[in-house]
Amino acid sequence: MKRILSALILLSLVLISFESYAYNGEVIKFKMSDSKIYPGTARSVTVYVPEQYDGTEPACLWVSVSGGSFIFDIFDKLIADGDVPVIIGVFVAPGQIRDAQGDVVRYNRSNELDRMDGRYAEFLETEVLPVVCSHKTKDGRPIKISSRATDRAIYGSSSGGICAFNAAWQRPDLFSRVYTACGTFVL
């Protein structure tokens, strides 16, 4: 019983730390609702710009399929310690289709993430990343992202895991680094 209670307390502390993380960079949030690749969908995108990013050189890129923006403080520590280069994080939520009243009619997650074609990679390349790069930080630093595949990573779990793998498989010129957690690999 003591072990179970200790494990539950530890798990609670971990979950609370994800809720109340402290980070030093800047977060830019915006909505996208004019996709040509996924028409009729709307989604939120969160961009994390670490404080070490000075805007003069393109930064490395981390794309997180279906959110996961709880790692800002981890980026901060790894960058500050010199364990990783400066990384801009882009966290893309799956699309939703809403009716005229704003109610969700359909979640587009499976249509976007479980496909076995290059559509999601094209979506990132032609729709998401250009919008990300059109933003500036509060102090005017332009968002510049490296175009080298070796400077880019894509991450997802579950359906996001197969999406991340597939995006890199279909477009190794865009992403050469993939992290998939519990990917839903089905045929």
Q: How much strand? A: 15-25%
How many structural domains are formed by the residues?
Answer: 1
Annotated CATH architecture: 3-Layer(aba) Sandwich
Which oligomeric form is depicted?
single chain
**Helix/strand order, N-terminal first:** HEEEHEEEHHEHE
Helical content stands at 25-40%
CATH class: Alpha Beta
Low-confidence stretches: 1-20
Overview of the structural elements:
This protein is α/β, with parallel strands linked by helices and 187 residues long. It has a single domain, classed as Rossmann fold, CATH 3.40.50.1820. It is 32% helix and 24% strand. The chain is built from five helices and eight strands. The strands form two sheets. The protein has a six-stranded mixed β-sheet, sandwiched between helices. The chain has a two-stranded antiparallel ribbon with strand order 5-6. Strand 5 and strand 6 form a beta hairpin. Helix 4 packs across helix 5. The longest helix has 18 residues. The radius of gyration is 17 Å and the shape is globular. The N terminus is likely disordered.
